[in-house]
Write a structure and sequence with these properties.
The protein is α/β, with parallel strands linked by helices. The protein has 4 domains: 59 residues, no CATH class; 180 residues, Rossmann fold (3-Layer(aba) Sandwich); 269 residues, P-loop containing nucleotide triphosphate hydrolases (Rossmann fold, 3-Layer(aba) Sandwich), CATH 3.40.50; 50 residues, no CATH class. It is 36% helix and 20% strand. The chain has 19 helices and 24 strands. A hairpin with a 2-residue loop joins strand 11 and strand 12. Helix 2 packs across helix 3.
C-alpha cells in the first residue's frame, strides 16, 4: 500500500482500500509487488476478475503533448496514413520503409503519441541500437526504459514508463510480462530494423506469441527486403510470377531524403590493382581489377573468377588491405583539413581481420582507432567515439556496422567480399547522418569499394541518384543554377524550427556555388569509375607441414622467402621427419601478425 493510501485507478484517498492483483490470481497472476496495486472498494469491485486497472492505464505515465514542432514534412504525411490504418477493422500491422537519416525513429515515436495507445514497446535486433531509441525518445518527452517491470514514483503513486526498448534475444525471458502488459494496456509494438524479423525465424515467432494481445504493430526498416526466400513480418507482398515483391505501406527513400537536404551526399570511389597467386607447384595466376568482369577471359567461369579476385584482395592479401587502408586514411586527412573532427569506418569480414587491421591502423599508420566487433559493446563504443574526437576510426565487422550511426563519419572502406545490395546500403547509411551546425554540402562523404563489377553497378546507381535527386546539383549555369538555388532555399526555409536534427543551411555559405560545382563535376565525371590502382601484389601458398596448413592460407612474398630459408636446413627428409615439431613451432612463429 502506498504511503498516502490513494487508489491507483481513480486517485481517491482510500485508507480502507483493497490490495489487488493487477493480473488476477485466478488467471495466473503472481502475488508479487510488481503485480500489486492499491484500489478503492468501488474500483476493485468494478474491476472484478479482469486483468488491468479499474480505469485503464492510470498508473502509466501520461503521454507528453507534442505540438508538431520539429516534425518533418514527410512525417506529417505519414502520421494520418498510419492513424487511418489503426482504425481499419481487423488490421493490426503497418510497415514504414524509411531511409537512414530520414527520421524514421522520431516518426515511430510520434505515431505512439498521436495514436490511441497507452504504452510503446520497441523491439530491436541488436543491443547497440537501444541507446539511440532512448535518446531520441527523450527529445520528444517519451521515457523509454531497457529494464522490464521497473517503476518510479510520480505524484505519490507508482508509475510505469511510457514504454520499453528490448532486443529480440530478451523476449523469451520477459514473455510473460509482455503478455500481461498487452492485456492491461493498449500497446504499440514498434519493430525496428524489421528485415531481421522474418517468417520462420525463432525470434519472430517468440515476439508474435509474447505480444499477441498488442493493440497494433508498426514495422520500420530502411532496407525492407531480404536476400533469402523468407518473407518479412508485417510487409505486404505482391506476386510477380514466381517472385514476390514486398511493398511498405509508406515509403521514404534515400533519394527523397537527399532531396530534402537531410542526409549527406555520398560519392562512391573504387580501388583496383592486381593480386597474383603463387601456388605450391610454382604456377601463378593473376587476378587484376583492370580485367573488369572477365568476359574476355577463358578458363573458370566469369563469376567464380570475380569472387576469387575479391576474396584474395580483401581477405587474403595483407599488402593489398594495407594499401587500401592508406588510401582511405589519406582521404580522411583531406576531409579533416576543414577543422571538423571527421571520422572513418573500416568494415571487415571477420574479427581476426579487424583485430589485425586495427593494429596496423594504430601502430604503423598512427591513426587512433576504436575496435568495435562485439554487438554488446556497440552502444558504449559509439558514445565513446562521439565524445573523444581524438579517435579517427571505427574498425568494425559487417554484422556490427549496421548498428553504428555516428554523425561525424565521412569515410568508409569495405574490406569484405560481400556484394549484397542490402549490406552496401547499410554501410552507405553509416555515412548519411549529418553533423549539426555544418551545412549538408560540407558533409559529402566517400565510400571506398573494390572495383568489382557488381559493386560498381551499385555505386553507379548511388552516384546518379545523388546527382539527379539533389536540387542544388542541377546542371547548368546562370538561370539554371539560380533556379536550383531557389529550390534549395525553399527546401531549407520549409524545415521547421526546433528540428532535432536540424543543421545550418548551406545557402549561408558564400563559397557554396563553387563547392556545388566541384561536387557535381565529381559525380558527373566518368573517370571516377576507373579504379585507383593500388599496386600489384603477390600471395604465396603457405607450405604444408605434416599434411596440415599452418596459420593462414597464404603469406606475403617476404614471409614466404623467410619461411623457405628457415626450412632449407631440413631438406633431408629423415631430418625433417625427426624435427617436425620444431618445424611446426618455427612456422607458427613466422605466422605471428599474419591476418587470416
Amino acid at each position: 500500500m502506498l504511503a498516502d493510501a490513494r487508489c491507483e485507478a481513480c486517485g481517491a484517498h482510500a485508507p480502507d482500500g483493497h490490495a489487488d492483483h493487477v493480473h488476477p490470481h485466478a488467471l495466473g497472476g503472481l502475488t508479487t509487488m510488481g503485480n500489486a496495486q492499491w484500489l478503492c472498494a468501488s474500483c476493485n469491485l468494478a474491476k472484478g476478475a479482469r486483468p488491468g486497472l479499474g480505469a485503464r492505464g492510470r498508473h502509466v505515465l501520461p503521454k507528453p503533448a507534442h505540438n508538431g514542432v520539429g516534425r518533418r514534412r514527410w512525417q506529417g504525411e505519414f502520421l494520418p496514413a498510419f492513424l487511418a490504418a489503426t482504425r481499419e477493422p481487423g488490421r493490426r500491422r503497418y510497415f514504414l520503409g524509411a531511409a537512414v537519416g530520414s527520421g524514421k525513429t522520431i516518426a515511430a515515436l510520434l505515431a505512439y503519441l498521436a495514436g490511441d495507445f497507452d504504452m510503446i514497446v520497441v523491439l530491436t535486433p541488436k543491443t547497440g541500437i537501444r541507446g539511440s531509441w532512448t535518446s531520441d525518445a527523450a527529445k520528444v518527452g517519451i521515457r523509454l526504459q531497457t529494464v522490464m517491470g521497473s517503476m518510479s514514483i510520480e505524484d505519490g503513486r507508482r508509475v510505469m514508463p511510457h514504454g520499453y526498448v528490448l532486443t529480440a534475444q530478451m523476449i523469451p525471458s520477459v514473455a510473460a510480462y509482455l503478455d500481461r502488459l498487452c492485456q492491461m494496456h493498449r500497446v504499440l509494438v514498434v519493430v525496428d530494423e524489421a528485415h531481421h524479423f522474418a517468417a520462420g525465424l525463432a525470434w519472430s515467432a517468440q515476439a508474435d506469441a509474447a505480444l499477441a494481445h498488442a493493440a497494433f504493430w508498426l514495422h520500420v526498416s530502411g532496407t525492407p527486403y531480404r536476400h533469402d526466400d523468407r518473407e518479412i513480418a508485417g510487409l505486404r507482398y505482391v506476386r510477380h510470377g514466381n517472385r514476390a515483391e514486398g511493398t511498405p505501406d509508406f515509403r521514404r527513400s534515400y533519394a527523397e531524403t537527399l532531396r530534402d537536404g537531410l542526409v549527406a551526399p555520398i560519392i562512391c570511389r573504387f580501388l583496383g590493382g592486381s593480386v597474383t597467386r603463387v601456388n605450391l607447384n610454382g604456377t601463378r595466376e593473376t587476378y587484376d581489377y583492370a580485367d573488369g568482369d572477365y568476359t574476355a577471359r577463358t578458363g573458370r567461369p566469369q563469376r567464380q573468377r570475380m569472387a576469387e579476385r575479391l576474396r584474395l584482395s580483401t581477405l587474403a592479401s595483407d599488402d593489398y588491405q594495407h594499401a587500401a587502408l592508406r588510401e582511405a586514411v589519406g582521404e580522411l586527412d583531406r576531409y579533416r583539413q576543414d577543422g571538423q573532427p571527421w571520422g572513418g569506418l573500416l568494415v571487415c569480414a571477420t574479427i581476426r581481420q579487424a583485430q589485425a587491421l586495427h593494429r596496423h591502423l594504430t601502430g604503423t599508420l598512427g591513426q587512433p582507432a576504436l575496435l568495435l566487433v562485439d554487438e554488446a559493446d556497440t552502444e558504449d563504443g559509439v558514445a565513446r567515439f562521439e565524445a573523444d574526437h581524438g579517435l579517427r576510426w571505427i574498425v568494425s565487422i559487417t554484422k556490427v556496422s549496421e548498428g553504428v550511426s555516428v554523425p561525424r563519419l565521412r569515410v568508409a572502406l569495405m574490406l569484405t567480399n560481400v556484394t549484397a545490395t542490402q549490406t552496401l546500403e547499410q554501410v552507405r547509411g553509416r555515412l548519411a547522418r549529418l553533423l549539426n551546425g555544418v551545412g549538408s554540402l560540407r558533409q559529402e562523404a566517400t565510400l571506398f569499394l573494390m572495383a568489382d563489377p557488381r559493386l560498381i553497378a551499385f555505386a553507379r546507381r548511388s552516384n546518379e541518384m545523388v546527382l539527379h535527386e539533389v536540387p542544388w546539383l542541377a546542371p547548368g549555369d546562370g538561370d539554371d543554377h539560380a533556379r536550383a538555388m531557389a529550390r534549395l532555399r525553399a527546401a531549407m526555409a520549409d524545415r521547421p524550427e526546433g528540428d532535432a536534427e536540424a543543421h545550418v543551411g548551406p545557402h549561408d555559405d558564400p563559397d557554396m556555388p563553387a563547392h556545388i560545382r566541384r561536387l557535381g563535376d565529381a559525380l558527373r565525371d566518368e573517370a571516377q569509375y576507373r579504379p585507383i590502382h593500388l599496386g600489384d601484389f603477390r600471395l604465396y601458398a603457405r607450405p604444408a607441414l605434416d599434411g596440415a596448413v599452418i596459420g593462414s592460407e597464404f603469406v606475403s612474398e617476404d614471409e614466404f622467402l623467410a619461411l623457405r630459408e628457415r626450412l632449407a636446413q631440413f631438406a633431408d627428409p629423415f631430418v625433417a621427419m625427426s624435427a617436425s615439431r620444431e618445424l611446426l613451432e618455427a612456422a607458427l612463429d613466422l605466422a605471428e601478425g599474419v591476418a587470416p
